[in-house]
Amino acid sequence: MSRDVILQSLRSSRSENKHVFTSIPSTENIFNSVESEDPALLFQQKLTALKGEYLFAQNGNELSKLLENLTEGEGDHQFLVQPSALLSKILYHSLTLQKRLVQVRLDAMDHQEMERYRGGITHCELLVAQTGSVVLSSSRQGGRRLSILPPLHIVVAEKKQIVNSFEEVMQRLEKKKDLGSYVRIISGPSRTADIEKNLVLGAHGPKRLVVILSETNQFEV
Amino acid sequence: MSEQTQFVRQATLKSEDKSHFEKINKAIRTYHQAVEKGQSDVFKDWQAARRVAAQIKEQALLQLPELLIQFEANIKKQGAQVLWAKDGHEALGYVWNIFKENQAELAIKAKTMVAEEIHLNQFLQGQGIELWETDLGELIVQLAGERPYHIVTPAMHKSLKEISELFQKKIGIPPTESAETLTQAARHFLRDKFIRSAIGITGANFLIADAGAIVMTENEGNGSLCMTLPKTHIVLAGIEKIIPKLTDLSLFLPLLAVSGTGQQLTSYNSIVWGPKQVHEVDGPEKMYVILIDNGRSKLYRSERFRESLRCIRCGACLNACPVYRTVGGHTYGTTYQGPIGALITPFLRGMREWFHLPYASSLCGACRDVCPVQIDIHHLLLEHRKMAVEGNFSGIIWKAIMKLWVILMMRRAVLNFLRPVIFFLTHYGTFLLPSDIKKHIPKLSPMSFEGEWRKKS
Question: How many Å apart are CA B335 and CA B317, to the nearest integer?
């Protein structure tokens, strides 16, 4: 079997005395330190530098209003929403959003159908101030498709989800259970520079990435 | 025609092609500006980052068999299947079996160099499969019927105008001068292929042993779609892609992004632990990881050359190389171009046929200086040359000439004796030669350095 052939070949190539491990190198002092007074501000700067969009909601009404603005003029039932208690609550209180947003079981929806929607609305695991990134998991944020197939991706997050540095992301992920089978770290909208190094947004993923940050997700509407 | 003759011929053509030079150098200038900024954005100490990355990769290589087994065990627990291929032929066999099992006729593929290495596209198309490259640069190259020009920027050699003409002809769009319109045309063209494909093929930038996960980094979102929409996900990965821990990504993702394109992080970084889990709403039902050796264990066997397996395929050494920038990516005739290609191709594809590539280097060391995992590329190229000489790859005539040269240079008396002859030949004997060669032959001065020295003292 090739497995054994390959492994055997690798093992036999390694001389005995060379099989010693040096101490594990430290990544201390390699990265620029992130000691922002206001991680949300740093996140905003980094995200907008990547051509993502940043919005802030003080409370549930503001969040609802922002979502109404973002979905304006696209017609009825054009935005898919990840199943979540918060978003259900928002929907329950806004007739406008009820018309525009759709919250259904995503496992029953085929690709063709999902592709017709103008946007996907999800929560996230983490936001990264240092890099302006959004971290999503497939099990908790509506699967793999919702954040990549529609041309607009809206992320609804709260302040305590922000971590300062990219280094912290992996440390957090390592401890988390039930992330599902897929974690996607998103830094700005889809882009390409394959044609004469011209930057073009919206290659195959979303052309727009909007992050709505709120003080807390535990609010009354 | 031998590979060497081909190389020399192509190199001559390309180095005289001014428009080629301008295109490539414009792209590489843009790259270097971005890298400078990216490095200082993320890293306080770039040199320390390189050192640590090299150490982590070196450790991973020392424990390679153990880490591969650990990776296999962990990702299997999460429902993926792992297949081991000693060469390209075997890997293609696995792929073909998966296609047959799923009765797949249409497939999408993200950018992966190891697929180029095993000639996956030619193979599947030969079997009647409709296979689409989904990375924009790769799609351009596929439609043009060419090979990737660069391991990170495959269509670097194509101007906007050429791409516009290509798209008009192949996917029937009206003429345009906008990169935006061309990108949208590609998005539109591939959309329905994404949705209908039964199989998605991707590579992996890293295999993580402790997590049992594969990692892919990209900007367009095509790779994410390839591992999201189709029912079956095939991952092709060289066995050297292993890193020990999930937390190593803290360093390697920014390191690769900065060296590859000058970004802090690429737009999408996907970490995949396996196929769709029971409680999840979507994702591939089956996931196969094909671990490919294809000559890598030969590199591994050589203690001196093993470090070239640290390579993370960022393309920085290509962009830094004065030879690459002059002769261009296609001239190499290899999957991996530039300094790293010259270094590993003789091992992957045969010393005798590819020994000339290590000579396509000025040995300036720019490749080593930019390499994010500190591969000592130019010294290894020199080692290659030594092997080529010892193995007599350059032929008897060349060897005889070099022997004569050594005799001449080691014996002052012989050199002095021959001096008048050489003087006469360089001054009066060149009229028989064609003028373009004649102008390159310097005229010997009337007195040798040794003679002048004697006169003065």
Answer: 15
Say how many residues make up chain A.
Answer: 221
- How many Å separate Cα A66 from the centre of its chain? 19
Ordered structural domains, chain B, with CATH: 1-42+306-392 (1.10.1060), 43-294 (3.40.50.10420), 396-456 (no CATH)
Residue B1: Cβ-neighbour burial (10 angstroms; 0-12, 13-18, 19+)? exposed
Cβ-based neighbours of B236, under 8 Å, separated by 6 or more: B91, B95, B112, B114, B115, B118, B120, B201, B202, B203, B204, B290, B292
Contact B268, A190 (CB under 8 A): yes
Instruction: Report residue B432's pLDDT band, with 50, 70 and 90 as the boundaries.
Output: confident
How far apart CA B236 and CA B123 sit, in angstroms, is 15
Residue closest to B388 by CA, chosen among B358, B431, B427: B358
Mutate to test the interface with B, among A42, A82, A165, A196 (most CBs of B within 10 A): A196
pTM of the model: 0.93
Q: Which residue of A112, A187, A196 is in closest CB contact with B179?
A: A196
Q: Among all chains, which residue has been given the structure tokens 């590539």?
A: B357
CB-nearest partner of B276 from A2, A181, A185: A181
- In angstroms, the CA A57 to CA B373 distance is 44
Locus of tokens 């065990």: B73
CATH of domain A56-214: 3.40.50.10420
Backbone angles phi, psi at A101, to 5 degrees: -100, 150
B111-164 pLDDT, tens digit per residue, is: 999 999 999 999 999 999 999 999 999 999 999 999 999 999 999 999 999 999
DSSP string, B407-425: HHHH-HHHHHHHHHHHHHH
Contact A133 B186 (CB under 8 A): no
What is d(CA B266, CA A190) in angstroms, rounded to the nearest whole number?
A: 9
DSSP labels, B326-390 = HH-SGGG-SSS-HHHHHHHHHHHH-HHHHTTGGGS-----HHHHH-TT---HHHHHHHHHHHHHH
SS3 call for B261: helix
Asked whether this complex has an ipTM greater than 0.90, the answer is yes
